[in-house]
Amino acid sequence: MINDLLLDPIIRVTTSNESHLHATLPETQALLMRDEVLTFPALRPHQRHAWHAFLAQLGAMALRKADLREPPEDAEVWLRLIRGLTPDFAEDEPWRLVVDDITRPAFMQPPARSPDRLKDYKTAVPTPDALDMLVLSKNHDIKASVAARAETDDWIFALVTLQTMEGFGGAGNYGISRMNGGLGSRAAFSLTSATRPGAHLRRDMAGLLEAHDALVAVYPMIDAGDALLWTLPWDGTKDEALLLNQLNPYYIEVCRRIRLRVDAGGHLHGLRTSSKAARIEAKKLNGVTGDPWMPVNRKENKALTLPSGGFTYKRVIEYLTPGNWEQPALLRPTHAEDSSSAPTLLLARGLVRGQGKTEGYHERVIPINAKVKRAILRRASMDELGRIAQERIENIGTLQRILSHAIQVFAARGNSNKVSEEHRRLARPWLNRLDEFVDARFFAALQAEFDSDDRDERGRIRKSWLLDGEGSVINRARAILQQAMNALPCPTIHRYRARANAEGLFEGRIRGPQGLAFVFDEANQGDEV
Questions:
Q1: In sequence order, what are the beta bridge partners of 20?
Q2: What is the reported pTM?
Q3: Which of 78, 90, 161, 211 has a CA-to-CA distance to 387 between 20 and 30 Å?
Q4: 213 contacts: CB under 8 Å, gap ≥ 6
């Protein structure tokens, strides 16, 4: 069977000139380093970071072991580099999807210590999506166990995602070390010049190599530590649990005991079993393992667990600016990026995991200008950016409260003394519309203000953002108020009064001392309506 990732072309690739081909793992790395990969057709959105991180960690370990600073663009060189990580396996067992001998590793499949352990593997896995980490209780978004015609790379991506991203799945099914608890998530933040897979990978490999000394200075990990954890025997016992000080700083872990097999028809399927303990003893670490993509809460010493709603502008600002959060290594500019005036992108990815369900995959790309990029390495500059961002968030909060009050008064037929919880509930969807509008424009507007070193100019930029044409925040709030009043029920006999009172309240409060009075000075009188 064709199943050796190093020698068999089993990874489907769409190249930048839109041709379609099958590549080996070394060829895939070479194509990526030449930035010739457009997509991986079999790779599902929630698997992107798992695959990216696997390739980046693998590449960084291979380069460091070979004492190379630049990644090669030749597949034969990559073949030697990757094989150099597993010199004890002459038959490439760690890179083959199917190895019949259970005491030998297979790709992302740890070996057992004895052939007798084969009897433990009783749970069938018929398709790669049945193996995947998504919890699909109602089969709404992505149907479970439907990949009956799956190709080999579907299994590759499912294995990598399961073993490096999975959380707690019930008794005997432990999650990975690189997240805060079994219901956490392995979120990812990094900078990149482009979202193309190759450009992003090359950049993060460089970042990993530069971050190495800092990682080993903070975390008890060593170059000689275990790196590819699926090569180590594992019977799922407590005594086998690995400690962080036994690991390489770029270690690629596995969290489940599984083996792939081939049936009589030549089709892949899986068999899995449970464990009595997690592969890595990391419960007390709370996900703080030196994951170079993961923000860490300094105050609680816990890795980020992405909340529902994903990467809103408020959350990104919280994670990006100094305060409670320590930025991950790959969110900091590399030496080349710090000395360059070119803008870059902030790329954030994460899956929100609920109890017994998956609450959505989130991905966000934010253009970052040169000044903000350089500021990331300088706490005083980031303090300033954070201050401006918080002021803007407070401005939006003030506007939302005023808008909410106006809508509630309209829903109460213009009588502010009869506003009820039901009226507050009716207002919430309209506030979300304003927040969505702000979210789409927040970072560009924030950076425009931060870019200026002149205090008066910054003030003009803020006022323009709040009240300058249809694209301003206040005018969008006015438009949303009109939409709400047109849509919400109100008897005709009360509608004129309700509308007049709601509009009057909105305009009065926004100009008042508890509103945004600073916007409505004499220099801006012409922009009020």
A1: 14
A2: 0.92
A3: 211
A4: none
